[in-house]
């Protein structure tokens, strides 16, 4: 499941996106992949690895809450 967030503020010329998804690895581990940048660009990405799916989901939830507090919806 991919979570797609955006933050658009025309007054400040701000059009940003933030994507978060979880994927299983080959060896029973789980990756949390996040992508961010200006809407219309490929942006940047980062991948974090976790031992269990539950840990990855907890990290995804924390990121989603942080972004919500910063104005992403």
UniProtKB/TrEMBL annotation:
InterPro entries: WGR_dom_sf, WGR_domain, YehF/YfeS-like_WGR
Positions of transmembrane segments: none
PROSITE patterns: WGR (PS51977)
Matches recorded under Pfam families: WGR
Domain WGR: 1-73
SMART domains cross-referenced by the UniProt entry: WGR
CDD domains: WGR_MMR_like
Name recorded for this polypeptide: WGR domain-containing protein
């Amino acid at each position: 499941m991919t979570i797609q967030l955006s933050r658009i503020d025309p007054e400040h010329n701000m059009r940003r996106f933030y994507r978060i998804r979880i994927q299983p690895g080959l060896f029973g581990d789980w990756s949390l992949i996040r992508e961010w940048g200006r809407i219309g660009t490929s942006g940047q990405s980062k991948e974090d690895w976790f031992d269990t799916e539950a840990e990855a989901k907890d990290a995804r939830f924390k990121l989603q809450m942080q972004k919500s507090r910063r104005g992403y919806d």
